[in-house]
Automatic annotation (TrEMBL), chain A:
Positions of transmembrane segments: 36-56, 97-120, 132-152, 183-204, 233-252, 299-320
Location relative to the cell: Cell membrane
Keyword terms: Cell membrane, Membrane, Transmembrane, Transmembrane helix, Transport
Species this chain originates from: Streptomyces roseolus
Residue ranges, compositional bias (Low complexity): 7-21
The protein's name: Sugar ABC transporter permease
Membrane topology: Multi-pass membrane protein
Length: 332, 288
C-alpha cells in the first residue's frame, strides 16, 4: 500500500513548494486535524475522564489513608506493606487467580477446541448443534451461577443424584473448599461457546490442500492434527489463552454469587457476608477491591489491590498486542 | 456406481465413512446434552411445587405454571425488569452513537497518534472495571450525588465504549477504502460519507456491537452492585435475582422460575440475531 502511494507524494512535493500551494496544504492539514479531533472527541473525553483521571487518582489514594469521611491522610507505602504482609486475604486470592489461570483457562481452551473440531465434522444438523453449543455462553452470569449452585447442590441436586446412581463419588461442590473452584470450572466450560466460534472459524481457514497432501503421504488423523491443524491455528490458541488469563484476572460475578448463594448468607439476612466461602477458596482480586473499599471503607488498601490488578492485566494485554498480525493486525 | 461391481476397497471405505458419521454425531449428541440439560433441569424445577423442589425428583408431579406469575407478583421484580431495560436499552443506543465516529476515524483517517490511540483503546478494553472503581465511585457518589441510581453506569456510555470502538473498527477495516475515497472525490463531506456510504455497509458490525452492549448491560452485576445496591428501586434483574434467592431461600422452584425469566430475553434476542452475533465474536478474535 505504502509503496503504491510513494511516487504520487514525490510528484506532489515540487508543486507543494509553491507558496500558495503550501498555504492551502497547511489549511487542509489543519482542517483534517480538526476533523479527526471532532470524530475522536467522544472517546477522548471518555479516555480522560473514565481512564486517565481515575487511574492517577487510584495511585494517589493508594498512598493515603482514606475512609470517605475524614480527609485523606498521607501514609506513603503503608497501604502497600499492609496488603503484601498483613492483609490475610491477599495471598489466597492471588493463589486462586493462579489456579484459575492454569486450570480453568486451559480446560476452556481444550474443550473449546474439541467442540470446535467436533462442529466442523458434524454433517447433519450442524446449525442446530452449533446453536445448542453456543447458547450457554449467553446465559447471564448471575442466572447461570444460580442455576449451577442448584444443579450441583450436594443434598438434592440432579448432578449428585446422577453421580450416586452411577456409583461415583458425589462431592459437595460449592460447599467444599477443595471442590468450589472445580465447580466454577464446570460452569466456565459450560459457557465455552465464544471459544467454539473462534476455533471453528480458524479451523475452516486451514487450507484443504494441506490435508489432502498429508493424506496422500499416508498421515493418520492424529498426525494431521499434530502437524497441520495445530501449527495453523496456534495463533488462535495463544489468543484464547491470553484473553482467558485476562478474563481470569477479572473473574468476579460467578465466584461472588456462588459463594453468597452456597453459604446461604444473602442480602437482608443481617449476617455480614465474608467473600471467599468456603474458606477463601473462591476469593479473587476484584472481590478484594470490593470488600476492602465498600465494606471496610479502606479505600487506600483497595486502591493497592486495584493497581496490582492493573499491572497484571496490562502485562497480559501487552503480550496480546505483540502477537504478530494479531489483534490490531491489518491496516497498520 | 451400479455399473461397475463395487470393489471391496470401496465398500470398506463407505462403511468407514458411515462409522465415522455415527461416531461424530453421537459425540455431538453427548456434547449437546451437556450444554442443554442444565437448562432443562432449571425449567423443570421452576414448574415444581415448593415441597417437590426440595426433593431429588427430576420432573414435576404436577405442573405449577403459576410459579411464574408468583415471580412477577414479587415486589420489585417488575421494577428490576424496567431498570434492566432502561440500562441496557439506553446504554446500547448511547454506545453505538458515540462509538461509530471514533471507530470510523481509527479505521479510515490517517493521522499522527492513530496507532497510539488504538493501543489505548485496547488497553481500556482489557481494563478490569475494579481498577478505577474507587475514584469513580467517589466522583459519582460524593460530587455528583448520583449513587442509588443507574446513571453513573449509563452516562459514561455516551463517551464511546472501548470494546465497541474496537469491534466497529475491525468491521470498518473490511470495507474497502475505495468507497470512502470515491465519496470524497465526489465532494461528499466526511460526516455525509460516514452516514450515507459507510453506515449502510456497516450494518452487520453495528448490529453485533449493539447486541454485545445490550447483553453486557443486561448481565452486569458489578456496576449495579456498586451504584444501586443501597436503593432497591434502582436494582436491575441481574442484581435483584440474587436477593430474590435470599428472600425465597427455600423456594428453589420460584428462584429457578426467576432465573428462567432473566435468561429468556437474552436467549430470545439471540435467536433473532444469531448471525450478527457469531460474526461479532469471530471479528474480534480471528480476523486481524
Amino acid at each position: 500500500m505504502s509503496t503504491d502511494t510513494l511516487p504520487a507524494t514525490e510528484a506532489a512535493a515540487p508543486a507543494a513548494s509553491a507558496p500558495g500551494a503550501r498555504n492551502t496544504l497547511r489549511a487542509k492539514r489543519r482542517r483534517n486535524a480538526l476533523r479527526t479531533l471532532a470524530f475522536m472527541s467522544p472517546w477522548l473525553i471518555g479516555f480522560g475522564f473514565f481512564f486517565a483521571y481515575p487511574l492517577v487518582s487510584t495511585v494517589y489514594f493508594s498512598l493515603m489513608k482514606y475512609d470517605g469521611l475524614n480527609p485523606p491522610e498521607w501514609r506513603g507505602l503503608d497501604n502497600w506493606t499492609y496488603v503484601f504482609t498483613s492483609f490475610p486475604q491477599f495471598w489466597p486470592a492471588l493463589q486462586n487467580t493462579l489456579w484459575l489461570c492454569v486450570v480453568m483457562v486451559s480446560c476452556r481452551v481444550v474443550f473449546g477446541l474439541g467442540i470446535g473440531l467436533l462442529i466442523t465434522k458434524i454433517k447433519t444438523g450442524a446449525g442446530v448443534f452449533r446453536t445448542l453449543f453456543y447458547l450457554p455462553y449467553l446465559a447471564p452470569p448471575v442466572a447461570a451461577t444460580l442455576a449451577f449452585v442448584f444443579l450441583l447442590n450436594p443434598g438434592t441436586g440432579p448432578v449428585n443424584s446422577l453421580l450416586e446412581a452411577l456409583g461415583l463419588p458425589a462431592p459437595a461442590w460449592f460447599n467444599d473448599a477443595a471442590w468450589a473452584k472445580p465447580a466454577l470450572t464446570v460452569l466456565a466450560v459450560w459457557g465455552v461457546g465464544d471459544l467454539m466460534v473462534i476455533f471453528m472459524a480458524a479451523l475452516l481457514d486451514v487450507p484443504k490442500e494441506q490435508y489432502e497432501a498429508a493424506e496422500l503421504d499416508g498421515a493418520g488423523p492424529w498426525q494431521r492434527f499434530r502437524h497441520i491443524t495445530l501449527p495453523n491455528i496456534s495463533p488462535i490458541i495463544l489468543f484464547a489463552l491470553v484473553t482467558g488469563v485476562i478474563g481470569a484476572m477479572q473473574y468476579y460475578t460467578q465466584p461472588i454469587v456462588a459463594s453468597k448463594v452456597a453459604s446461604g448468607v444473602m442480602g437482608g439476612s443481617g449476617v455480614t457476608f465474608v467473600p471467599g466461602y468456603p474458606d477463601d477458596s473462591t476469593l479473587t482480586l476484584p472481590q478484594l477491591v470490593y470488600s476492602l473499599g465498600f465494606s471496610q471503607f479502606n479505600y487506600g488498601a483497595a486502591c493497592v489491590i486495584a493497581l496490582v490488578l492493573f499491572a497484571f492485566s496490562m502485562a497480559f494485554t501487552a503480550l496480546l498486542m505483540r502477537r504478530r498480525g494479531g489483534l490490531i493486525g491489518s491496516g497498520d | 456406481m451400479t455399473v461397475s461391481p463395487t470393489p471391496p476397497a470401496a465398500r470398506t471405505a463407505r462403511r468407514k465413512a458411515l462409522l465415522r458419521w455415527i461416531a461424530v454425531h453421537s459425540l455431538g449428541i453427548a456434547a449437546a446434552l451437556f450444554f442443554v440439560l442444565p437448562f432443562v433441569f432449571v425449567v423443570l424445577t421452576s414448574l415444581m411445587s415448593d415441597q417437590q423442589a426440595l426433593t431429588r425428583d427430576l420432573t414435576p408431579d404436577t405442573w405449577h405454571f403459576e410459579n411464574y406469575t408468583k415471580v412477577f407478583e414479587t415486589p420489585g421484580f417488575l421494577t428490576w425488569w424496567k431498570n434492566s431495560l432502561l440500562y441496557a436499552g439506553l446504554g446500547t443506543v448511547l454506545v453505538v452513537v458515540s462509538s461509530i465516529p471514533v471507530a470510523y476515524a481509527l479505521a479510515k483517517f490517517r493521522f499522527r497518534g492513530r496507532h497510539l490511540s488504538l493501543l489505548l483503546v485496547i488497553s481500556m478494553m482489557m481494563l478490569p472495571p475494579q481498577v478505577v472503581i474507587i475514584p469513580m465511585y467517589l466522583f459519582w457518589a460524593k460530587q455528583m450525588d448520583l449513587s442509588g441510581s443507574l446513571w453513573p453506569l449509563i452516562i459514561p456510555l455516551a463517551f464511546g465504549d472501548a470494546f465497541a470502538v474496537f469491534l466497529l473498527r475491525q468491521f470498518l477495516l473490511t470495507i474497502p477504502d475505495e468507497y470512502v475515497e470515491a465519496a470524497r472525490i465526489d465532494g461528499c463531506g466526511e460526516l455525509r460519507t460516514l452516514l450515507r456510504i459507510v453506515l449502510p455497509m456497516a450494518k452487520p458490525g453495528i448490529a453485533a456491537v449493539a447486541l454485545f452492549q445490550f447483553f453486557y448491560c443486561w448481565n452486569d452485576y458489578f456496576g449495579p452492585q456498586i451504584y444501586a445496591s443501597e436503593n432497591p428501586a434502582a436494582w436491575t434483574l441481574s442484581y435483584g435475582l440474587e436477593s430474590f434467592k435470599g428472600a425465597h431461600h427455600t423456594d428453589w422452584n420460584l428462584t429457578m422460575a426467576a432465573t428462567v425469566l432473566v435468561m429468556a430475553p437474552v436467549i430470545l434476542v439471540f435467536f433473532f440475531a444469531q448471525k450478527a452475533f457469531v460474526e461479532g465474536v469471530t471479528l474480534t478474535g480471528v480476523k486481524g
